[in-house]
From TrEMBL:
GO terms for molecular function: metallopeptidase activity. It comes from Kribbella flavida (strain DSM 17836 / JCM 10339 / NBRC 14399). Residues 1-11 have a biased composition (Low complexity). Residues 75-84 have a biased composition (Pro residues). InterPro entries: DUF3152, MetalloPept_cat_dom_sf. Residues 1-28, 75-108 are annotated as: Disordered. Residues 111-272 form the DUF3152 domain. This is DUF3152 domain-containing protein.
């Protein structure tokens, strides 16, 4: 009995499923019919008016959005700063031509060469009256240096009690005349290399050739690591060393580690255990 009743219930459920299945299929036929009809109508509309569908869609979305945008005030979006990869620049940036000096904080120019020299005008009297050697200061145009300040630094060095005047019967007088005994020139590495020929300054060091003392602007600006940021002291060294050549001195090696380097040592290339020294009277440093 139990089995029969279960069987009846099972067949009833099966009939129900069959009915439901037929009903579902009926529904799905209707839906398909509607879809096909709708597609046919839409197709006809699109064939007759190819732009009709697009216009309708545009009206629903695009044009509404556009007209909404048109009625709103324009929104000004500031450009987002993007970090510039400096590696893509092939030329160094230069200040505008109308600027006499670069803006505050800008990197000074010590390398972009104009190839033209300008004489610093003015004079500085000798500090004594023996064996006067006249010199004039010339600076390559376009370098970020104040001519008067450079000339003052050079004259102070040459007339310093620790300088060559303490060892030689010489006194230095600055002039801006073309017949000066010595030209002290501050130039870019490029022009330094040219003015120093036949010596090889390699874009890095300074020289003295004939009546020219050529100071490499890169060294004048940044000195060398051995001077540990003592830029003024290195400038003293640079002037004294190259003018020392003009007075007839050759190079000297480091005599003993941890003693002051001779001013005629090539200190720019290394100290070989000696200590930085800018003055011919070596014990004075
Ligand atoms: Zn030298």
């Amino acid at each position: 009995m139990t089995t029969r009743r279960t069987g009846q219930r099972a067949s009833t459920r099966a009939r129900g499923r069959r009915r439901a299945g037929r009903h579902s299929r009926k529904k799905s036929y209707k839906a398909q019919w509607f879809s096909v009809t709708a597609l046919a109508v839409l197709g006809t509309v699109m064939v007759v008016h190819p732009d009709a569908g697009r216009q309708t869609l545009a009206a629903q979305f695009g044009e509404v959005t556009a007209s909404r945008e048109a009625t709103l005030p324009p929104v000004i979006v500031p450009p987002t700063p993007v970090p510039t990869p400096t590696a893509t620049f092939t030329k160094p940036q230069r200040p505008a031509p109308s600027l006499i000096r670069p803006p505050k904080g800008a990197k000074p120019n010590v390398t972009v060469s104009s190839g033209k020299l300008g004489v610093v005008p003015g004079t500085d009297k000798a500090t004594r009256d023996v064996g006067t050697m006249t010199y004039r200061v010339e600076i390559e145009q376009g370098l970020s240096f104040n001519g008067a300040a450079v000339a003052a630094a050079v004259h102070k060095t040459l007339t310093d009690p620790r300088g060559w005047q303490a060892l030689h019967q010489v006194s230095f007088e600055r002039t801006d005349r073309p017949d000066a005994d010595l030209r002290i020139i501050l130039a870019t590495p490029t022009l330094t290399d040219k003015l120093c020929l036949p010596l090889d300054t390699g874009g890095e060091v300074s020289c003295r050739v004939e009546d020219r003392v050529v100071l490499n602007a890169k060294r004048w600006m940044y000195a060398v690591p051995a001077y540990a940021g003592k830029i003024d002291l290195y400038r003293n060294y640079l002037v004294n060393h190259e003018v020392g050549h003009a007075l007839g001195y050759g190079h000297s090696p480091c005599p003993e580690p941890n003693t002051p380097a001779p001013v005629m040592m090539q200190q720019t290339k290394g100290l070989d255990g000696c200590l930085p020294n800018a003055w011919p009277t070596t014990k004075a440093t």
